Structure formats: structure tokens, C-alpha cells
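Appendix B. Chain record.
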Amino acid sequence: MLLSELAHAIGSAAPTGAARVEIRGVTHNAGWAEPGDAFVAIRGARVDGHTFADDAARRGAIAVIGEGPPEGWTTPLPYILVDDARAALADAAAVLAGDPSKRLDVVGVTGTDGKTTTSWIIRYLLRAAGRATGLLSTVGYELPDGVLRQFPQHFTTPEAPQVQELLSTMADSGADAVVLEASSHALALDRVRAVSWDVAVWTQLTREHLDFHGDMDEYFATKRALVERSPFAVLNADDPWSDRLRGVAPAETTYGQAEAPAEWHARDVVEAVTGLEFALTCPDGEFAVRLPMLGRFNVSNALAALAAVHRLGVGAAEAVEALAAFPGVPGRMQLLPATDLHVVVDFAHTPGSLQKALAALREVAPAELWVVVGAVGGNRDPGKRAPMGEAAARLADRAVFTEDDPRDTPLAEILAEMERGAAAAGRHNYVSVPDRGEAIRHAISEAAPGAVVLLAGKGPEDFILRFDREDPWDETEVATAALAARAAPAAGAEHATSRPPASRGDAGSHP
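C-alpha cells predicted for this chain:
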């Protein structure tokens, strides 16, 4: 494609000297620039992307796209003037990739909690119905071959050029549908701006990312954009924020468990350590549903998925039958192979999601309930730390506070805040064990037979961020090793006599 053609496609005038310049790609990161790319200079809160234009040029960039060159601009490249650089990055990426989302049925899933599980259930049900389906999720991404791959960078959603490249790869690989988690950052930063949506799924809204959005109204407005851009919305009737979404999309359906009317409604929910059962009323009739997952909130995730695939032509009877064999989501209420303990790995990393996970396990826990949990550091909403500690100590019999991406915040500060939250609630059933591996081994070695142990916060993530280090991590592997040590008589005896010292709380006493 010619640079002049790209400029026209994104609504800009062709720059001087662009008549015969060929463009092959676009990026906003000078370090990623390759020969034939256009460099998009984005003005951030602290850094102006124009500063890196010369570096991009040295790497082979053949043009700059921006909102206007700064005073003293000397970079000798054609300049495409746009009103919004981030929007131009997304639009240009889609044009250069051939608008791949227009070749696919695209289901977008947004909300605070439940996005990943809902996305994975949708992806599973579509594949069970014979649809070649791709997935872009926090857990990773999949082509129709079903192989889970990790993003090179740790974004909930990658940047716009990577989104478009992945969509193009999926379409070229034979996909006719894709499920895409749309995070608030992805929506606010236009990473998914140029995606052509077919269905928008709204899970629910709770406190999260307020360090980025400022307040709940702004957070809501950002996520609402997905519904505004979609021809069909699947809305959670049990979420109060959904009232402000009714009628936003041209067509919609609702789901829920409460008494409030919903087209996809679950009742008579039965919870057990082995899974969930419920009665479903939907546009296709009445069905008995079995879902091999833990947590009543996963009933809502399943309802949302059923409604979404129904919009794409999958009948309820077919989807319900497939749901009974759903293998689960890595790190989302993932039940490890049974031993004398029930160990559950979950990504719950907000006060709301932690409360839901613990409340769900409390309903089915045959004996005591343990939780191992941390709170993130850096500038990631420090107001969540005390509520995380309070929720853990209040809802579990035993709480172990530990690390969860402390970043550049001293871990002792994070743990002290979690302890403060627990103590303020009058709870003293906690212990702080800074090293996450030691914390998991402590909980698994000390828990009584039959106990449920929830490992919360990391889920499927394969790293821990400690200052400027990204250390490898595998929660399931650490827990499995701890279970093996518990099962070995010698190791079990050794662990029974070793216990990390408690910090402020006392995990050895009953609440």
C-alpha cells in the first residue's frame, strides 16, 4: 500500500513526498520499528512520542503519524497530520491488516470480573458447535488449532497493531469466529477501536483500575463503549450498572439469577465441590444444566456465554449438552487433582472477586477454608490492599498474606496494609509469609484433611513482578509439588514441625 493511500484511508491528507512511498506496517514503539513502517508519535502524560522519531527512522521507519510536530522538528520523514494519534494507530493497523475482523464473527467480553471465564466458555461452546474459533484472552491467545500461546508483552489486550495482526492470522488460519476480552485499558487506549464487533457481552462492574480511570463513572463510560459499538448486547440483569446500558445497542438480551426478569434465567442452583447444577429458562425452552466448575458466580458466566453463542446460531440444547464437559479455565477456579485437600487456583485479585471466590467455596467447603492471597504494588490502586486483607480474613478460616506482583513497593508495606484491613475487622486468623512459594507450602502443609485451600491472585500468570525483575512463576506447579510433599510421610512429618512465624495475626487460632 502507498503511504498516500493509507493517509486517505484514515481520513488525512497525503504528506509531501508520499506519492510513491510504500508502507508495510505501523507502530507507536520506536524500538519495534522495522523498515517500511510508519511511526505513530503519541503524546503521553510525561513523554512525547516525537522524541523517539529519529530512533524509529534509524530503524527503517519511512513516515511519522502524529497530532503535529513540536517546535524545532527536524526528523526528515513525511508527516501525516491527524486529530488523534492513538485512534490513527488503530485505524492504520486495521487498514494495513485488511480489516480482518470483518471476516470474522467477533464476540467482545467486558466487565470487571468474569471476562476470562465467560470468554473461554464462549470459545468452548462455539468449537463444540463446529465453529473454527480463535481467542484473545488474559490467559493468552489461541488460533483455531487450540494451542494456547502467550503474548510477548504482558497486556490484558495487546496494542492495536498486534490485535489486528492476530485477527488477521486467525482469519488466515481458517477461523470464522473469535472471542476477544475487551479490558478497560484496551478500550480507553483505542487498542480495539478498529475491531468490528458482532456481540458485546457485559459481565458486571466492580471497583478496579481507578488509578487509571479516576472514578467509577469514568470506568463505566470506558467499558460502555463496547456496547455502543456492537449491534447486539448480552447484559447482566443482576448488575445495577446494566440499567444504564439498556437500549444502547440496537438489539439486546439479558441473563441473570435473581428475581429480576431475564431472558436467560437460572434457578434452583445446586453447588458441590465437584461442580454446579441449575435449571435454565431461555428463549429455546427449559433445560437442566450441569457445569463442572466451582462458584455460583460461574452460573452467570455460563448464562452469558449461552446467550452469546445463541446469537451466533448455536441452539440452547446443543450448547447445554456441551457445557457438561467444559474442561475449565486455567487459573480460574481451577480445581487441582484430588488429594486429601481440595486446592483451587484462581485469578481473584480484587476485593470483589476475592469475596466471590471465598463465598463460593464457603458454600461447598466440607471442612476448614484457607486462602493464600496478596495485593499488587506500584501505582496499582493501593486502596485495594486493606480490603483484600479484610475480605480474606473475614471469609476464610485461615488467611496467609503474601506477595502478588509487589513491583517497586516494599512488600512489608503491602503486607502491613493487608494486616491492617484484617485487624480492623476484628480478625486475627492470619499470618504473613512474604515469599509466595513458602506461603503456598505453609497453607498446604498445615491445612487439615478435607480442607479447601484457595490460591488467589496469580491464577495462570507465568511471572511475578519484583521491582525491575519479571521472575518466572507457575502457581499450579508450586501447589502440585507442595501436595506431593504433603503426601510423602517423611515430608509430611517434617512440614508438621516447621511453621513460618506469624506476623501480627495468628493463623494457628480459630476465628
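Further analysis of this model is presented in Appendix C.
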